[in-house]
Amino acid sequence: MCIDIRPVNRMRERSQAGLSLIELIMFIVIVGAGIAGILSVLNVTVQKSADPMIRKQMLAVAESLLEEVELMPFTYCDPTDANVLTATGPTISPTGCATLVEGTTTIPGSEGRGTATPFNNVGDYGGTTGTLIISPLTDISNTAIGMLSGYSATVNVATSSLGGIAAAESLLITVTVTASTGASIALSGYRTRYAPNSTQ
Question: What's the domain range around 31?
Answer without folding.
Answer: 6-48
